[in-house]
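Vacuolar protein sorting-associated protein 41 homolog
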Amino acid sequence: MAEAEGRKPSEEFTDESEDEDSEEEPKLKYERLSNGVTEILQKDAASCMTVHDKFLALGTHFGKVFLLDIQGNVTQKFEISSVKINQISLDESGEHVGICSEDGKVQVFGLYTREGFHENFDCPIKVVALHPQFSRSNYKQFVTGGNKLLLYEKNWLNRWKTAVLHEGEGTITNIQWRANLIAWANNVGVKIYDISTKQRITNVLRDNVSLRPDMYPCSLCWKDDTTLIVGWGSSIKICAVKERNPTEMRDLPSRYVEIVSAFETEFFICGLAPLADQLVTLYFVKESSENTDEDFRTRPRLDIIQPLSEGCEEISSDALTVRYYQDNECRDYRLEHSEGESLFYIISPKDIVVAKERDQDDHIDWLLEKKKYEEALMAAEISFKNIKRHDVKKIGMSYINHLVETGDYDGAARKCQKVLGKNMELWENEVYRFKTIGQLKAISQYLPRGDLRLRPAIYEMILHEFLKTDFEGFATLIREWPGELYNNMAIVQAVTDHLKKDPTNSTLLTTLAELYTYDQRYDKALEIYLKLRHKDVYQLIHKHNLFSSIEDKIVLLMDFDKEKAVDMLLDNEDKISIDKVVEELADKPEYLHVYLHKLFKRDHHKGQKYHERQIGLYAEYDRPNLLPFLRDSTHCPLEKALEICQQRNFVEETVFLLSRMGNCRRALQMIMEELADVDKAIDFAKEQDDAELWEDLISYSIDKPPFITGLLNNIGTHVDPILLIHRIKEGMEIPNLRDSLVKILQDYNLQILLREGCKKILVADSLSLLQKMHRTQMKGVSVDDDNICESCHATILPSDITRNFSVVVFHCRHMFHKECLPSPGTILGVQFCNICSAKKRGPGSGILDIKK
């Protein structure tokens, strides 16, 4: 006998070595049926047992039958015989029991009344089976199996009537009754009898005839009303009872059996039970001895298998340590099951083990045992309503403890968010534990900071820890944590104390500025940001409207980033005036230029009083933009600008100013003499379009061959080239003269062609418009009651159209009574519309003279 006190039920009956090595979770858990059963089996031995949803019925080798509750406590005891009880059968209601023994006794009676059937046979009766509806049926049917299969039922006189269903094939060792079908096994095979049609419908032969049927009995089990599972030796067959097609019946039974699956197993079958679409099998195991040729008995196995069409797949396998398994034979084991709760009872002479499906608590136990805490926590969260022995929070705490023990502090801290939830006490305990192990940094980023908040002292403790060892981490926490979590003044003081030792530490200075910002001391924060030239200074100014605080810090802002500073100042002119900015930048002319330049770009008139100063600023710092400024500004003093440009010898700007002041000849002279750029001189002359300028240009260029070439190439459309050509001295060598003359001729031809083309277009357009006007004037004009005389303003048509009247209609659509018209115009025979003539729209001669 192999027992181990103090073990978990799942460890007491299964192979421990396999359980420890395997990572696959077992499907079943086991526990020994104790209480009254223990005392019974100490003095007696179990021979059979039947399971009902409400109780158990146990038969012994000494002829006793015990009724037990599910925990194994004895509720009733029956002295049936002095020899072995072979079979106990219960109906579905559990109200009637059938018992048979080795000495031939058969008893069928009600548990609440001893009236029933009592008979002694002259041969051992191996099995008895009650009709499933025995209590409700009027016929009270049951069958017994010895040498014959006998059917008993009560007739209408309340007497028992017997019928032989089968005989002649040896001892009947097993009977299973389901609905109207009775299945039994004898030495030859398995038969099924349909009690409704009183027909035997199949005969499933035994495969291995070498095995003694009394030592290796057949196991039968109904999966449902039409599926029978047969196990014999090492062979399993699944048989389906089906209805036969009426056209195929003839003299055949109305039903037939089809074997849907058949396969061999490794060991000898002691019992079968269904589990959903799978199969629970109890095996008797023999193994060969290494020292002798004899086999020895090992622990029985309980397997779950998945039947397939041509084999099976093993789902799980457990070796059971039952008492005295070394002395048991295959016939000593039985497997009974309770359909309602998926309980499986393994019966041996000295032990009864109960196997049941593992529930979610068992699944979590296994995960925790294998240290799979993540999966255990997930399983508990999903099934929190169904678990009874476990608590989600406790599992989570075990997981956190495991992570801490293995050194995964970040993982443990991360799990705190999920596990601790809103339990402030647990949070604080964990924070102090992390402090004890020196891992406050790990938990800092996961502390609650929303609606749920810990005491300020907790947050301050972590901040002080970071301030000692990690300035960057300290700065990160200050940025991420809301200022309400801790005492801001205390942290400011701590940072200030550190800065006394290291006053240039930019990280601490930045953090101090952020703390000042939380405390709404923006002036101090701004001062630090400017000192550090920090990029957030502009955001701080905008966000908190600190423009009044920066009026005396404009130069510092410009030092940091001129472009951003100028944009901010210009965007907020209503808060910091232009005059104030100019005053502050008076000593920084380069910054002043940048500011005034951008101001001028935005609006040419806003800074008009500073345009005079800007001339010098442009000349000093930004000459490329000086000329555009002079062109665009209407408030710039030209004399001052000319003076500055002449002092600095800015020729282009001076030329522009001279031309703008009306001194074009001097401007042209500067272009010719100082720039020596004929193209620019020509462009200037074209722009001014002054004949005197062209004359000056020709006079200046007449003794300079390159200038003559430039003039010949460009003046053809503005000045008659002959004037220039006549003034060229004889014998003067002019570069590219031929090309220039050809270009002049080509330009002339082009002008002629353009004029002719324009003339043709004008003639065609004039003709087209004349024709259109003629067609329009030839059209009739509608005159009706809505028209009025433009002179007397009466309706143009008289009310009595039968009398004679005259109407004059002009092409301009004005209408008059003839008698209302003024005297004719000066041209004989031509009359004009006085309205259109008065508006100088041209004459409109009368089209129609309507008379009636």
